[in-house]
Structures are given as C-alpha cells and as structure tokens.
Write a structure and sequence with these properties.
Two copies of one chain form a homodimer. By secondary structure, chain A is an alpha+beta fold.
Chain lengths: 766, 766
C-alpha cells in the first residue's frame, strides 16, 4: 500500500485556490433568466389574494410563478413527508416562505416585478414555542402539530430506576442553528424537449432527481441533475431544497432560470432542529449506569423535511456510547412557525450528546468519581451490543478516550510548564486549575458514537483508457470534504495504477452511476467499496486478455503499476486494450455495486462513527468569555485513506461544533428571524480557533470500507459542546445546561452560582 | 419488433426547432476569453519576423500565441501525418493559415490586438497546380510534394487490355469543394488544474482527446472533450481541427478561450480533395469488362490531414461495383499551396465514381448497349469478391439498380402523361426525349459501392434506473444525422422497454465510453451493436435477480415491456432493482464492447454501403442551365431502424452531391481563395431541389448492425454527378468530364459538340 494512507494533494486544490473552480452560481446558460422570490413577511398568515398579472406585464419578465400556476404537477415536496409547498398555497407558515417567484431578463427587472405582485394576507396567531406546540389551544399548523414521534426502549426502565442508588434528572436545551455554508443555495433549471435538466448545489443529486421526476411525472432517465463544486453543505443541501421551485419557474418562463439565494434567504431554507430534553439517569454509587429515560422535543419548523429521520436518530443517540441495561427514549418533532429544520452534520447527534455527556459529568461530580473513570467504567467495548438488535460496536472508544485524555493533559501540562505557573501540578486526573485571580482554566471531555445512517446503495464505474490511465465515475458530491482525493487513492490502489493516471468524476446523474446521497459519513465507505468492486471487474477483464497474450493461466499473472506481469515479462494495461480493439482505440469498463447484499452491509448501522473531544478552556469570570486553549479530537477511523483530509474533516466538525457551543443561535422574535447574516449570526472566526488543535486518528483497519476505512467527519461535532461545558464546570464549578455558551450566559451563570445551589439537585418530574 | 423500423420523432427535434438546442458557440464559461486568428495573406511565404509584444500590452488582451510560445508541447498535429503546425512556424503554406492568435476580453479587443502584431513575410513562389506538384522544378512545400501514393492492383492488366475488343480512355476532373456545414468550427478550451477540458464542434471527440493528450503530454484521463450538438459535419469536423490551437491559446491566456471561426475562416480549415483522373477501360464488344487502369492525382493542399486515408479509399473505389478480372490503380495525393483537404462524406468516393460511372455510359453509348443493361451485365452479385481479399459484396446492387430504373421511368412516364406530351413513348429503355425546341430531357443512372472504413472500436454503457427507465451512453456525435433516434430505438427494442423511457446521451469523453469516431457510416452499426451488447448484460443481471425473486430457472423467464415474466406473474425491472438495493435506490449497468473480435467484424470492410442514383434532367440548350426534375436514390440499407431518418440521410447525401454536380467549386486565383462565402460559393437552395425526390430503401435485414442494419448516408453522394452527366448526355448527346456542370460549362460543351467529335475517342497516354 503506497497510495492509500498518504496525504496526497487534493485534485481540486489548484482550481479552488486559483478561483477557477466552477460552482453552480458561475454557470451561465444561453437564454437564461434570473429568478427572485417574494417572501411572506408574516410567520403565519392566510394568503387571501395573490395576483401576478401586473408583474407579468413588466417588460423583461418571462414568468411569474404564483400558486395557481402549479398545475399538472404535485406542488408539494419533502424528504420524509411531502408537506412543503413549492410556493405557499393557502397560507404561509414561516416568515420568509416563498409566496411567488419571478423569472426575468436580469435581477433588477425581477426585483421590480416582485413589487408589482399583489398579495393580501390575513395574519394568523403564530406558534413560536415548540414546548407549546402540543398544547390543547396551540395554533394548528397542519392537521396536527406533532410531525413525528420516535420512541426507543429496551429493558425495564422502572426497575432500573427502582434499583438505583442515585437518580439524576436534568433539563437541557439546544438552539436553532444554521449551517452557514459559504455558498448559499443556487439552482439552474431548464426544461429540455421532454425532459428536465437541473444544475444545483445539492448534496443528494439522485434524490433530487427522484423528487423532480415525481413532481413533474417524468421517467428518471429524463431528469438530469448536475452538481458542480459545492461550497459547503453540512446537510443544508440535502434532499431537494430550491430545485422544485426553480424547475417550476423554468417551466413557467419557458427558458432556463437561475435562482441564487442570498444568505438571508438561504437561512430561511433550512436549519438544525432546536431541542429541549429532560434526561433522567439511574446509577449505582460506584458509577454503574443502570437506566436512562429521556423526553425530547425537537422543533422542526413549518414543514417536515426529514424530521422523522432526525427525530429517530436523535432518539437513537441519547444512549451515547454506553451499555444501558434499561433505556426509554421518547422524542417528538413538532411543527412551529419557523424555518423548516432538516439534516445538519451528525443529524440529531449534538442535541443528544449535549444532554447525555453533560449529565455524565454531573453524575461524576455528584459521585466524586473522575469523569474519565466514570466513562471508562460504562463505555461500550468493541463488540458490545450498544443498541439492542443492531450491529455490535465496532469502534475503540476506550482507546480513543485514553489517548484524548493523555493528549489534553500533556498539552495542559506543557502549557503550565511553559507559563511557569506557580500552582502545584495536580496529577493525572482532570481537575480545575486556576491561572489567575479572575481567569480560570479547566479541562473537560465528552465522547459519542453515531450509528452511521449510511444506506448501502452506491455504484461506481471505472473506465480504463487505452493509454492505461483511468477515470472513476461516482456520484459523490465534492463539497469540500476531499472525497475525490480519497476515491482516487482507492482507485489507484485497487487498479495497481499510479495516482496521477486517475481522474475521479462525480455528480451528473445522467453520466455518472447511482449513489444514494452524500452525507451520513457514507461516501468513503460505500462509494469506496463500489470503486473497489469496479476495479475488480476491470482486473478480471485484464486477466482474461493477458492469459491470451501470455498463453498463461491466471494464477501465474500479477499486477504491477499499470502492467500485467508473467514471470520476467510484462505488458501494460494500455497495450492489452489496444490489442483487444485491434488499433489505438477502446477502453475497458468495470462496474461496482454496493447493496445490502454486499458482504456484511446488511446489518445496521454499517459502522459506528466515534468521537472523543477534550477541551482545555479558559473562562474570564469578569466577562463570562470562554476561550478554548486546546482541543483534542480522537476518532476511530479504521484507516485514513488520506490522513490530512481525514484530519481536516475531523477538525472541521469540531470547529463547527464550537460555533453552536459558543455563539451560534438563530434568534426569533414573534416569529421573525432577526439575525440571518454574518454580522448578527456569529460563526467561529480564526480568532476563536483554539491555539492548539490536535486530531488523533485511531487506525485498526477494521472498518467496513475500503482498506478498513470507516466514515468520519460528523461525530466530532457532537462532543464539543459537552466537552467545553464540562471544562467550564471544572474551571468554575458552574454547570450550564443551555447552549450557546455566550459570555452573557456564562456570566449570568457565574453570578447565579454565587447565590444558588447545585442545579443537579433540581428534579422536575418527567 | 415494434420500435425498430418505426419513424419515431427525433428526441432532438423540439429543442432544435425551438432554438433551445445548445451548440458549442452557445456556451459561455466563467472568465472566458474570446479568440481571433491572424492569417497569412500569402499562399506561400517565409515568416521572417513576428512580434506579439505590442499586442500583449493592449489592455484586455490575455494572451497572444506566436510561434515561439509553442514550447513544452508538440506544435505539429494531423490525422495521418503530423505536419500541420498549430500556428505557422517558419513559413505559411496557404493563404489564410493562422500565424498568430489572440485571446482577449472581447472580440473587438482581440481584433484590435491582431492589428498590433508585427509580421514580416518573404513571399515564396506558390504551387497552385496539383498536376505540376511532382515536376522537377516545382516549389517544394515539404521534403517532397508527394504526400502519399496509393496503388491497388490485381490480375494482369496488360493482358486484359491485350484481349480487349475496345479500350476507352477518358480524363476527368473533380473540383475542390467545401463542406459548408451551417455551423463553422467552434471550440472552447480550458486548462483545469492539471488537465484540459475542451468543448468543440468535433465529430471525433476521442481522436481529439488522443491528439490533445499527445500534444500536451497528458494522460487520456485528464483530457475531457465535450461535444454539444453539432451543426453539420460532413467530415469537416473530423479528427482535430482548431482544438490544438485553442488549447494552446488557453494555456497562453491562463483562462478558458472560445474561438468561433467565421465562414471565411472555416472554409480555410479543410475542404474536399480535388482530383484529376485518367481512366482506361478494356471491354469486349458484348460489354464484358476486362480490365481497368487508372491514374489519379488528388490535391491535398498545404498539409496532409488524412490524405493517405482519402487517397487509399479513392483508389479503392475506382473499381466501382463491378467485378474486374484485372485492375491497376495508382493515386497520388500531392501538396499544393491551398487549404488542406481532408475527410468529406464518402471520402474519395465522388471523385472515383464521377470518372468510373461517367465512363460506363461512354462505353455503353459506344457499344450501342443500354447503360442499364451494361451495368447489369457487369455488376457484382451478392457474395462476389468485389475487391480481392476483402469481404464479399453484401449488398443487392442489381436489385437496387432495377428498382431505381423502374422508379425513374415511372416518374418520367408519369410526367410525360401528365404533360400530355405529344411525343411517342419510348419504352422501358433510358433514352433521351425532347420536350421542346430548346429544352431537352434525359435520364441517367449511376451506381456505386463504398467499403465502409468503419473501425470495429465502439463501446456503450446502458444504465437501467430504479423506475425501469434507461439511459444509453454512447459517444456518437449528433450532428444532424439522427443517431440518437436510432440508438434509442435499438436500446428500447433490445431492453424490451418503451421508447419513451429511454434517453440517449453522447459525446463527453469523460463521462461516456469510447467510440472511435462519428463518420464512415459506422455509428448505427458499431454503436448500435455496442448498445445491444450492453442491453444483453443488463438483461442477464435482471434474469439473475428474477430467478431469485420467482425461484424459477432462467429458461422459464421472459421479458415484456419493462417486466420479467414468469408464467402468469411478472415483476417490473424497477422493482427488481429496488429489491436488490433494499430501498428506492440503485441501478444496473450494462457494458457493450465492439471490437474486431466481435462476431464477423474482423474482416474489412465491415459492410458495403451501396447507392444507385437515377436522375431525370432538363437542359436548357440556350443557357446551359440544368434542372433535375426527378431524382431517385436507391440504397441497400439492410434494415432501416428509423426509415424517415434513413431517408433523410440518403436524400441529404444526394442533395449535397447535387452541389458539387451543379455549382460548387472553391475558386483560387494565384493561391488566393476567392469565394469563401455563401454569396459566391453556391450550395443547393430549395429552388434547386428536384421537384420529385424518391428514396428506395432495400431491406433484407442482412447487415452486420443491429437488427440487420447497415451504414447509410454517404454512398448516395457519389452517384449524383455521373447520373446527372449521363442524363445530360442522354438529353443532348454532350459528354462533360469536368465538374461542376455549371450553365457556362454545359453551354460551352453544347457549342463545342456542334463542331467537335466524341470525346471518347481522345486517347491521351497514361
């Protein structure tokens, strides 16, 4: 193995740093119109009248999409439940919901046309509090405000609680956050003859294809979804977002239409589910976990999107990486008059881990047990049945925890030494230390597992050209995660070819074979396996040609660097192809299929993604400001195909987690979103990056993916908030159960702490 | 068979008639520059000095390509011999040859920059007459002016002539003509990271890929050639034309560059070889053909392009569709200071058939034998070895001739009746008839075969989607010939699917598998077979899935309209795929390979394309104007996959042949091309279309292609000129041996006829 495992340069690097990479927004089609949206100013209102005729008469306007134009098609779409209208029908359910769309010769004309659309609204009382959604007199957004209920249980929770020495009950809340991909949603749609072509910043081109085929009643072969480079997704571009609207607008305008959302609009397309969670945990005095009970409410906003998936997965993750003899989780996803929530990196994970891993430290503190020790005691071991009926844990959690703790301590100690701190060193356990009168330091950890929701449904095609170079065609979207590097490495290794002879092509549903989606940490595993399978088929063909060429049996042949070798002789792949085609012509194709029938992939989850986060923080007790001095992220990745890319994914997940940990929150007032821009919505900047960031990759080559790889890039986001909150507790003795940990919130908690009792003793009933 | 054989609507029809179809010229890339060429004003000159530095300093200019910039690459290219410089190096060899190229922000700036390039020339004597190219004191264009010599012989020609009753010797000439595709050459090139992407109006994307990879020393996997719709090719867009220059200019400019040639420039890119031919034929008095000897000179212009192929094929076609016991052909392709000549529909065929089929009528007239009878006597029969060592004739020439003659006579007789002509009807033989004092009518025929130069090197990929619809990926270029219809029909029939579920995608070398080229009448046969092969692989997979589903053996299963049937039960293709992938996901892929090893394709030619043309003309003896009243084209097409498309191809070829027959000729004076525009260069207009046009398709389902299809669309061009000249002779008794048959030339011949003897008696020595 010389290519797999090397941190080779990304093939998209040069294009991206030189500004030549093409994103959807860069594409111009002949005759293309530009779209703009008219949005509801109200979070909840009947649309009593809408008339686009004046706008239609404006010169330069090619089409105005109003609700009555959505004929001959299904005007509703959605990932799990098809309840979201392409544009609002009888009523608008969130502020910013499109009620009309215009396609015009340019954006100025489109904007002028928006002003000419007549709309009359009748305001309805908005439902803005998810905890009130299921109350008897709550305004009803749909037939019910309960979008989806997930429950998940085993053992006998009642008995677990009865047998416990101690029971802990805490309430946690997690904010609405926005993905803030640097590229807002962009889509171009064009009806072509009897088909539809779409270019979109979409993570799931094949799911978009299926949705558009359904909406417009077309065979899949007549819908083409092309995804150029995507400027970040993180789930915000999962499933169909603006594609149905843009396609309908193109149909209305009779020409290609581009719609590029502003950040303000994109923040009204999708967000992460905010959550409220009451968590009860029963333990023995020695720290043994006996039972856990959880009641979760997720705010899914105005429409369902993939709420049932998120809700199921959130419920699934409340158990954390521990073996629970008894468990009971109920989670409700409820509608409110806010932006619809959907997939976001590690769907459901941060909400669940925030509660679970904060409470582990609360328990440790109450029992007087070191939080690392408490985790070590209860962590599932390799092979344990960590969720009933599912694949046993195939990740080394205790190893990851051990390494993360050692690394964070070494860092903290190094700092101490370096600063010639006058304080005594406090040994290997994780305890708070004080660096100054008002600046307090602490270390915290958290750990988590994520049952990758990766469906075993990928294909690949490898083309071996007559000069021996190769093209691997896969449908993973390159949205910054570096999948093309990894696939190229897998292809090179599997084909026994130099990496520089390989090109990876992705993401045009017409040309490139099926892949379910880019998300759920699935690509390296699933698509990587498909590439390996395709390479096997190519090699079988090469062997067939070479047995004829050498008049030798297959067993006597081997592959080496683009050649088939027989004893002291060899022939290049290209020469074998040229022989087959009788001239300088031709190519070989190899197909790769990954299905639930592919060895071992029938059981869910396909893999357990894992993460340990350890944070050393500094709290300024005068201001409440929290600085993360050092962060260690440890993940069992099986095998890092491209270690630098894997570290990048892991660091990226952790950094994004620092956002919702420290600053990020979509702020609503009376159903109006107030901070949908980079000035008012804080994402981590370079100032806020930890000075020291260490990623530990545990590689036992035991994953289901190619060369033992596992998925990565999601789970690390889940542990940041509890690790930081646990570190704040270690530093200050203050426990905060609500995110983000803004200076104001920390400051208030510090003030409250001076007067109040320990929050762990507060015991609201479930 | 319900789809194959039906004249279904072309899938590109709606886009094309509505103006929405995208051609290369329609494409705009972000940051794209626009290119212009600086051309040599001299047909032959040393470039003593060239300096682009003033042009480079002009604001808005991104790059100026002058000869010294062609470093780190091979500056020469060409289909058969790589002698054509990307831009002229030490000297220019034809008027209009590019000596520099500019890439600028817009065309105006690029044109302004052209004026700032300093060039100094030293004029050299031009070689303008191909017949003088091999003379001792001719100006030398390359190491030799002999570009290529082809010879082709069997039997004992000397003995054949010695045994003859009569020997006929005639000299014929064929003009330089231009393809006049409505879309001139357009190309966009873009260096991407470490690869090169090109969009081009190219007929042979994979040959362009190979040429660019060679020139820039890249693996094939890193060169992408995309071909959108092409607005006609006819061979003018074969191999590489402007692509190497545009790629080099993009490299120089550091950004994408588009170069769209004007018609004036495109006419200086490639043309058909003009020809001079001395043809000697030995016959018995009963009309039996004994021997033929031919000396041909083809003018290949300044550079070779594919001169050796054209020259070989022209020599190959001098024998016509007859069995010659003795044959000897020598053909020389020579360089001159004119536009390089290359492929043109039925390469080499019109030049050879013009001589051969004119002389057959000369012989018939001299022997007093009906020209149809003379042909019937000598025509090769099905299975005859019509060329030594090659595939026996697999076309029904006598049947086609019989049907064409009957059809042209029926038409002529119908006209006579309709006009209540006072003249006597003259029975079934083809003889002149007079319709008025100065208007003379006549009927003529000609027949021809073309050994299709189609290489057996095609592949296809068929993707069957989870809703049972399918995409066929092939690399044939859709340049108006309707290949996508035919491929869709072959795919539908082979997959047992409704046609409306199938989409055919072509022509992006990155995404779509290998095909050697679009030309030589090969696509329906070669690519059609590849699609069938791919469909077989799909069906094998479906059978595998269905045997599991039904628990039934393969033999008990059958296919019907998107379903696999077992007794009274059936399951759709889509359902089988969804079962395999365990959800609404996935697809099947089937690969198709066509190589010389594919059953029966090892022998050349793969098929004999055939044509019979019969023309009824009217000659105005006062003006020399010739009108084609009725034209019948008969071809043995094996099986017409889409009869309307096949007729369109056949009529198109005949119509294009009427161009060089009646008007078309590139006129040079002292090496300057005078008529490179639609005003001065006449192509047939609707006024000149025959009033009656009939296409007869002979379908014995005996071709090597899918469902017994054969190639079509080329051979019909070869017979028009001799059929019309033979008809003029029948009408007026005047034999013309030089094309085009302009009114002036016909008028002069008529005047000369009044005073001179029969040209058939002129006997220059070979």
């Amino acid at each position: 193995m010389n290519v797999v495992g090397a941190s080779v340069r990304r093939p998209d690097a040069l294009e991206k740093v030189s500004g030549r990479a093409v994103y959807t927004g860069d594409i111009e089609l002949p005759g293309m119109a530009h779209g703009k949206l008219l949005a509801s100013p109200y979070p909840h209102a009947l649309i009593t009248h809408i008339d686009g005729s004046n706008a239609r008469r404006l010169p330069g306007v090619f089409g105005v999409l109003t609700r009555e134009r959505l004929t001959g098609m299904d005007p509703y779409y959605g990932a799990d439940i098809k309840d979201r209208p392409i544009i609002a029908m009888e009523r608008a359910r969130f502020q910013g919901e499109p009620v009309a769309a215009v396609a015009a010769v340019d954006l100025e004309t489109a904007e002028a046309a928006l002003d000419l659309i007549e709309v009359e609204y009748e305001e309805l009382p908005p439902l803005t509090d998810s905890l009130k959604a299921l109350e008897f007199d709550a305004p009803l957004l749909h037939l019910s405000n309960l979008c989806h209920e997930a429950s998940y249980a085993w053992g006998d929770v009642e008995r677990g609680f009865a047998e416990a020495d101690r029971v802990f009950e805490d309430t946690f809340s997690f904010p609405m956050v926005y993905h803030y991909a640097l590229e807002p949603h962009v889509c171009i749609a064009k009806f072509n003859g009897d088909g539809l072509a779409v270019w979109s910043s979409a993570q799931h081109p094949f799911l978009v294809r299926a949705e558009l085929a359904r909406i417009f009643d077309l065979p899949l072969s007549k819908v083409e979804v092309t995804v150029p480079y995507v400027g970040g997704g993180f789930g915000s571009k999962s499933y169909s977002k603006i594609e149905p609207l843009v396609a309908a607008l193109s149909r209305e305008a009779g020409r290609p239409v581009k719609l590029a959302l502003t950040v303000d609009e994109a923040a009204r397309m999708v967000r992460r589910h905010s959550a409220h969670c009451i968590l009860r945990t029963a333990v023995r005095n020695d720290g043994t976990f006996l039972a856990r009970e959880c009641r979760m409410v997720l705010d899914t906003g105005a429409y369902a999107d993939n709420a049932s998936t998120v809700n199921d997965r959130c419920a699934h993750q409340v158990a954390g990486p521990y073996v629970w003899p008894n468990l009971k989780v109920t989670s409700s996803a409820v509608y409110t008059n806010s932006v619809p929530a959907g997939s976001f990196r590690a769907v459901g994970g941060p909400q669940a881990a925030w509660a679970s891993e904060s409470q582990v430290d609360i328990i440790a503190d109450a029992l007087g047990i070191d939080p690392v020790e408490l985790r070590m005691k209860n962590l599932a071991r390799y092979g344990d049945e960590v969720r009933k009926g599912e694949r046993p844990l195939n990740a080394d959690m205790t190893g990851a925890l051990q390494q993360a703790v050692e690394a964070i301590q070494a860092g903290a100690e190094g700092r101490q030494t370096k600063e010639e701190d006058a304080l005594d060193r406090q040994g290997p356990s994780l305890r708070s230390r004080t660096t100054g009168a008002w600046v307090k330091r602490g270390v915290g950890v958290a750990c988590s597992i994520l049952g990758a929701g990766a469906a075993a449904a990928s294909t690949a095609l490898v083309r071996l050209h007559m000069d021996g170079s190769a093209t691997a065609l896969v449908s993973s979207v390159e949205m910054g995660q570096g999948s093309r590097s990894a696939f190229g490495q897998v292809a090179a290794q599997s084909l026994s070819l130099p990496l520089d002879q390989i090109v990876v092509i992705a993401s045009d549903t017409v040309a490139v074979p099926y892949d379910r989606s880019t998300g759920a940490s699935r690509s390296t595993t699933m698509v990587g396996l498909a590439i390996q399978d395709a390479a096997r088929e190519i090699k079988a063909q090469l062997l067939g040609l070479a047995t004829t060429h050498f008049e030798a049996p297959e067993e006597a042949l081997s592959f080496d660097n683009g050649n088939v070798v027989f004893g002291g002789e060899s022939i290049s792949y290209g020469a074998l192809i040229r022989q087959m085609f009788g001239s300088a012509a031709g190519e070989l194709m190899g197909r790769g299929y990954v299905t639930p029938g592919t060895g071992g992939l029938g059981q869910t989850p396909i893999l357990w993604e894992s993460a340990v986060g350890a944070a050393e923080v500094e709290v300024d007790t005068r201001t409440g400001a929290v600085r993360i001095l050092r962060y260690v992220s440890a993940s069992d990745v099986g095998k890092a195909i491209n270690p630098k890319s894997v570290e990048g994914q892991d660091e990226g997940a952790a950094m994004q987690g620092m956002g919702h940990t420290l600053f990020e929150e979509l702020v609503y007032e009376d159903g109006q979103l107030l901070n949908s821009n980079l000035v008012d919505y804080r994402v981590p900047s370079f100032d806020e990056v930890p000075e020291e960031f260490e990623t530990i990759l545990i590689e036992n080559e035991d994953g289901p993916g190619p060369f033992g790889a596992k998925g990565v890039g999601e789970c690390a986001i889940t542990v940041v908030a509890p690790a930081v909150a646990n570190a704040i507790f270690q530093a200050t003795g203050v426990r905060i159960r609500e995110l983000p940990l803004t200076p104001e919130r920390v400051w208030r908690a510090l003030r409250q702490e001076e007067t109040a009792s320990d929050g762990a003793d507060v015991s609201p009933s479930l």
